[in-house]
From TrEMBL:
It is an enzyme of class 3 (hydrolase). Residues 1-63 are annotated as: Disordered. Gene3D superfamilies: 1.10.340.70, 3.10.20.370, 3.30.70.270, Acid Proteases (2.40.70.10), HIV Type 1 Reverse Transcriptase, subunit A, domain 1 (3.10.10.10), Ribonuclease H-like superfamily/Ribonuclease H (3.30.420.10). This is Gypsy retrotransposon integrase-like protein 1. Residues 1053-1221 form the Integrase catalytic domain. CDD domains: retropepsin_like, RNase_HI_RT_Ty3, RT_LTR.
Length: 1245
């Protein structure tokens, strides 16, 4: 044994020398020639006549597949093998060939590449080792070894094990002798440190190792004399000593059948509860064990306490007094559905009204569930309702195995029950009528129901159903393929103080900030008891320590789902003065989009996540908290610090940096591993578990899931290519009570907004709810709000399943815009059905400025918002993106020669994407169109369907309005034409003189003049002014006016009607009956105008023909014309035409449209009119030009203080009541009866 130990030490020493020289070769530094490790390692080829001892038969080294963690063991095995066969492996060439034959997988591919390339690395053994070290070795081996050796502690393990692990890491640290001695002493157990401290401290590592072994052996012999197990941790509960040395645990074999066979009958186990105060005091006075009550030992070393938990108890003896303990009946069962088998522990509860399964466990292991036909309410023991609300879901019938031959099919109600995952209630007990022998602890099923329905299964399927006396929360069992890493799920490991790392949480305060000092919160008696336990446990773990800090935060408690209390330290004041760590957290929707090709999933939840990180040394005093039991400060990172999430995310990102987005995504303490195949997935999970072990991070087994095809993660249900909402959260939304104030509305919207990508038209549906959250809005729960609330809850239960985006297939973007919002749908074509399937929905309201965009810009804005929302998917796509829109003009936006400034800015953004726009009529663009539609301003107003009324209806309305005004007028004013208006009819009259198409939304002075011609009431001027200033159409459509800057040279004043004219064109209008432009002709004397629709910007010849036909025919030949410098007016044709008619031409100055300012002003008024009355498609403006001309010419002009038409006619056209018809203009013109109605509404004075 001594010779073998010495040989192993020589191999390790030689390996260290080789590695040092390999590093020198990689750094380009010449190093000394490697000394031969052993004398027989040198070349010793046999010479003639010599007889040599035969080489020993030793097994070949294990094959190496490229796994970094196995590289050093593989190289050591090869060196040892070569040393034992020196005559076989005499030169570098043979050794290299031997190593290559032992490579598999990725490593073999790498070596074969070198062979085919005839790489010079293959000429030297040292060069080959250097290249292999670079490829498969640990690049941070020194840092890893230093971190591991600092964290290494002997604990309760024998010192020989500690020495072995210490030597392993010491080889790679490059520390000097003094540093190694000091670190070795730090990791020893306290009783060995005490013995070493009594003498001279050793200065050499070998001396302190020998001394420690001697002291530990004497101490063990002494402990054996006391007949006490010196190492309780060596029982099956032992956790690993170091970061890479897990101690194997003996686990029962896992059977492939649902239940393992057993000849023992089912037994009922009992749970040990708290001791009564009287019994506890008796045991203390008599020096009895506080655990079992016997003499001769204490509770810490009680044989009953340290009994291995893996063995089921065959017999359980009931206590003599029923007051000593409280017992709960439970036994092992197995749930089976499809191809899944989940072992669990069921509790028998005669007070439960049904069989119950923990909802979180059901979603974690993907038990098939569905909605209950009728939701039910559940009351707890104290008579109050269940905090989670009504029960809305239940499992589908699944098989339940219990006992050697007991099989049945049950459905379970789903409620949050983490402490007891499965509860069998009174209906199950009544049906099975089990018999319990309390004296022996056996349970049997002799009822006729069981004999007929449950006990007819094959006897080969059985399970040991002995009840475990240690009732603890049961979850998912660790699969057999991952048993090597069971120490990662050790509960004891997380209770050990973690080492200092570079990721320690810093708390940097703002300069000059006052130190926060909180108050002590008053606590109830149960809260004080929990606080005592919390302080005691964390002091024992070393997570907190007594403090004399000037800071001090208060501590209070909040309730848990299971009814317990969770301590919360009020760090709000500290967070307010802390310099924030802006380390980003990943976007959850973006994480979900990384799972396109995944078919197998595993989820790992880290245990005590924040407590795995230390507070930066020197900052602990800032985390101090005050209680009535003392002043304490945290050594580990507590919950509630503003920098805690960023710090922990930084840690896990660095640990798994090279694995992120390959097969791992991480959000704080939730880790998801995903893979396309099961074989690859198992390798990926092992890699993740290995990283957790190396960095001393621990997981919570009962919150983990392994090798699942459907899994719950971060509020979503993931399956191959699919993304669904978590049914538990959907149930919470569906059972949400009606909000009673703004805060409750905000909570509901915040909770439901998480799933808005699943809900089509989300922003429009919640519009009545979001309106209630505004500061100036008074809370009033109206009928439309209740409808939106109920509709949203219903939509969550019927939301579609979204496809995962696949970058290897083209994307389709469907967009639309309405007057108030834009909507978009991102889709891809389903390979099976060939139909477009949604990936995500998006909708957003328009702000006040965006509502004033024209139709084309709104549709273009919808496209821009869609690209902006899914930029990370669409930018750089392999295939051109197809954009569907119902605005045909946008098909040519990429080739347009003239763009508005806004469109030019967006065009620069669009250059980042490869797309083409395709026109699709609105009738085929229903999905995107629905996203952009929203409620009207007042959803309670019912809109009558558009119908064509008969003439008698108009006569009736007119007569009714006339009679009403005459009836309300008790006397006319001095002007016999005016009627006195009562307050009841005031708004209707104002709409008539301002809003109607024949009024044209005139300004204040024009509307006042028109109103005074027809009506009278005392506050006429005030009411008209306020009405026009609050008119939404005027505020939205009219441009602001201001006085011109600088001096202008006026044109000569005209003296005769229609002798001095001005002409201009309004161009680039939406097509309307084939027309896209308007010719505007204004008389400079009377200010009258004619509006002539034309197909487009005319030529000079067409302009002259139109002028003769429409102007000269009616008013004669003018003497002068003012126009701009358009090509029509500067051409020789127009000049010759005007010269022949003796018309003087006045062209405006270049870049000075003020010359023709009168016509420009008329253009503004005409455009305002058309914006107010044109349809949403803006394709009926040609039909509006006659009424626009009438409205304009009948208004009073400021310069002449009379209606424009009065200067050319003897009477003023007056209107009384115009009934607006909700029919298309073409049908209106073709209907002779309707034309008569319109004529009858023109009352000429």
């Amino acid at each position: 044994m001594g010779t073998l130990t010495q040989s192993l030490q020589e191999v390790q020493s030689t390996q260290a020398q080789f590695q040092s020289q390999l590093h020198d070769l990689q750094a380009g530094r010449p190093g000394p020639s490697p000394p031969l490790p052993w004398s027989f390692f040198a070349s010793s080829a046999p010479s003639g006549g010599e007889v040599h001892t035969p080489e020993p038969e030793v097994p070949m080294p294990d094959r190496f597949n490229g796994d970094r963690k196995l590289f050093q063991d593989f190289i050591t095995s090869c060196l040892l093998y070569f040393s034992l066969k020196p005559r076989t492996y005499t030169n570098d060439h043979v050794r290299i060939q031997m190593v290559i034959t032992l490579l598999t997988g990725e490593a073999r591919t790498w070596a074969h590449t070198l062979i085919h390339a005839q790489d010079p690395t293959l000429n030297s053994w040292l060069s080959f080792l250097a290249s292999m070290e670079t490829m498969f070795g640990d690049p941070f081996k020194t840092d890893t070894a230093q971190t591991a050796i600092r964290a290494l502690r002997q604990g309760r393990h024998p010192v020989e094990e500690y020495v072995t692990s210490f030597r392993k890491y010491a080889l790679d640290t490059a520390w000097n002798e003094a540093a190694l001695v000091d670190q070795f002493r730090r990791g020893l157990a306290d009783h060995i440190k005490d013995e070493i401290a009594r003498g001279d401290r050793p200065r050499i590592l070998e001396e302190i190792i020998l001394l420690s072994i001697s002291v530990d052996r004497r101490w063990r012999e002494r402990q054996l004399e006391k007949n006490i197990n010196p190492y309780p941790s060596l029982l099956p509960q032992t956790r690993r000593m170091g970061s890479n040395t897990p101690r194997p645990l003996a686990l029962p074999p896992v059977s492939s059948s649902p239940l393992a066979s057993s000849e023992e009958p089912m037994q009922v186990g009992l749970i040990r509860g708290h001791l009564p105060p009287a019994e506890l005091e008796r045991r203390r006075k008599e020096n009895c064990c506080l655990y079992c009550g016997r003499l001769g030992h204490v509770a810490r070393t009680c044989p009953e306490k340290i009994r291995p938990r893996g063995k089921p108890l065959c017999h359980v003896q009931l206590p003599r007094s029923p007051s000593e303990s409280t017992y709960l009946l439970s036994f092992d069962i197995v749930l089976q559905w499809e191809d899944k088998k989940i072992p669990l522990r069921a509790m028998i509860d005669s007070g439960a009204s049904n069989c119950i399964l923990d909802s979180s466990l059901a979603h974690r292991v993907c038990v098939p569930v569905h909605n209950k036909e009728y939701p039910i309410k559940i009351q707890v023991v104290d008579g109050s309702s269940l905090s989670s609300g009504v029960v809305t879901h239940e499992t589908l019938p699944i098989q339940v195995w219990a006992g050697p031959r007991h099989q049945e099919t049950l459905s379970f109600d789903l409620i949050p029950s983490p402490m007891f995952p499965v509860i069998l209630g009174i209906p199950w007990l009544r049906q099975h009528d089990p018999m319990i022998q309390w004296s022996t602890g056996l349970i049997s099923f002799p009822s006729p129901y069981c004999n007929q329905n449950c006990l007819n299964s094959p006897p080969t399927l059985s399970v040991n159903t002995v009840l475990d006396t240690n009732m603890r929360k049961t979850g998912v069992q660790l699969p057999t393929c991952y048993q090597e890493y069971k120490d990662v799920f050790d509960e004891i490991g997380v209770e050990t103080l973690p080492p200092h790392r570079k990721y320690d949480c810093p708390i940097d305060l703002l300069p000059g900030a006052a130190i926060p000092f909180g108050r002590i919160y008053p606590l109830s008696t149960p809260e004080l008891e929990v606080l005592k336990t919390y302080i005691k446990e964390n002091l024992q773990k070393g997570f907190i320590r007594p403090s004399t800090s000037p800071a001090g935060a208060g501590i209070f408690f909040i309730g848990k789902k299971d009814g317990g209390l969770r301590p919360c330290v009020d760090f709000r004041e500290l967070n307010h003065i802390t310099i924030k760590n802006r380390y980003p957290l990943p976007l959850i929707p973006e994480l979900m989009e990384r799972l396109q090709t995944a078919t197998v999933f595993s989820k790992i939840d880290l245990r005590g996540a924040y407590n795995l990180v230390r507070i930066r040394e020197g900052d602990e005093w800032k985390t101090a908290f005050r209680t009535r039991y003392g002043h304490f400060e945290y050594v580990v990172m507590p919950y509630g610090l503003c920098n805690a999430p960023g710090t922990f995310q930084h840690l896990v990102n660095d640990v798994f940096r090279d694995l992120l987005d390959r097969f791992v995504i991480i959000y704080l303490d939730d880790i998801l591993i995903y893979s396309p195949t099961l074989e690859e997935h198992q390798r990926n999970v092992e890699e993740v578990l290995s990283r957790l072990r190396n960095h001393q991070l621990y997981a919570k087994l009962d919150k983990c899931s392994f090798n699942q095809s459907r899994i719950s993660f971060l509020g979503y249900i993931l399956s191959p290519g699919k993304l669904e909402m978590d049914p538990e959260k959907v149930a919470a939304i569906h059972s949400w009570p009606t909000p009673t104030n703004k805060k409750e509305v905000q909570r509901f919207l915040g909770f439901s907004n998480f799933y808005r990508k699943f809900i089509r038209n989300f922003s429009h549906i919640v519009q009545p709810l979001t309106r209630l959250t505004k500061n100036h809005e008074k809370f009033r729960w109206a009928e439309d709000t209740q409808k939106a609330f109920l509709k949203l809850k219903d939509l969550f239960t019927s939301a579609p399943i979204l496809e995962q985006p696949d970058p290897n297939h083209p994307y389709f973007l469907e967009v639309d815009a309405s007057e108030n919002a834009t909507g978009a749908i991102l889709s891809q074509r389903n390979l099976t059905s060939g139909n477009l399937h949604p990936i995500a929905f998006y909708s957003k309201r328009l702000n006040p400025a965006e509502t004033r965009y024209d139709v084309g810009d709104k549709e273009l804005l919808a496209i821009k918002r869609g690209f902006d929302e899914w930029r990370h998917l669409l930018e750089g796509s392999l295939y051109p993106i197809t954009v569907y829109t119902d605005h045909q003009n946008l098909e040519h936006i990429k080739t347009a020669k003239r763009l508005r400034p806004r469109q030019a800015r967006w065009a620069l953004f669009f250059t980042r994407f490869n797309f083409h726009i395709t026109y699709r009529p609105g009738s085929r663009n229903g999905k995107a169109d629905a996203l952009s539609r929203c409620y009207s301003v007042d959803s309670t107003i019912e809109t009558s369907p558009p119908t064509i009324l008969q003439q008698k209806h108009f006569t009736t309305v007119q007569s009714t309005l006339l009679s009403r005004l005459k009836k309300d007028s008790k006397g006319q004013s001095s002007n016999k034409q005016c009627l006195l208006v009562s307050p009841n009819n005031l708004m209707e009259v104002l709409k008539n003189v301002h809003d109607s198409p024949l009024a044209g939304h005139g300004g204040i002075r024009k509307t006042l003049h028109r109103t005074r011609q027809l009506y009278h009431w005392p506050s006429l001027k005030k009411d008209v002014t306020e009405y026009i200033r609050s008119c939404p159409e005027c505020n939205r459509m009219k441009s602001p006016k201001c006085k011109p800057v600088g001096l202008l040279q006026p044109l000569p004043t005209a003296s005769t009607p229609w002798r001095d004219l001005s002409i201009d064109f309004i161009v680039d209008l939406p097509p309307s009956q084939g027309n896209t432009a308007i010719m505007v002709v204004v008389d400079r004397f009377s200010k009258m105008a004619h509006f002539l629709p034309i197909p487009g910007l005319p030529t000079a010849n067409e302009t002259a023909s139109l002028f003769l036909k429409e102007i000269v025919r009616l008013h004669g030949v003018p003497s002068s014309i003012v126009s701009d410098r358009g090509v029509q007016f500067t051409s020789k044709v127009w000049s010759a035409f005007c010269q022949s008619l003796n018309i003087k031409i006045h062209l405006s100055s270049s870049h000075h449209p003020q010359t023709n300012g009168q016509t420009e002003r008329v253009n503004q008024q005409l455009e305002q009119y058309l914006r107010c009355y044109s349809s949403y498609q803006q394709d009926n403006w040609s039909d509006l030009l006659p009424t626009a001309e009438f409205a304009y010419n009948s208004q009073t002009h400021d310069s002449i203080h009379k209606p424009r038409s009065l200067l050319t006619t003897d009477s003023i056209p007056l209107r009384f009541q115009i009934r607006q018809l909700q029919v298309p203009s073409r049908r209106l013109i073709n209907d002779s009866d309707t034309c008569k109605i319109v004529v009858n509404n023109f009352l000429w004075h």
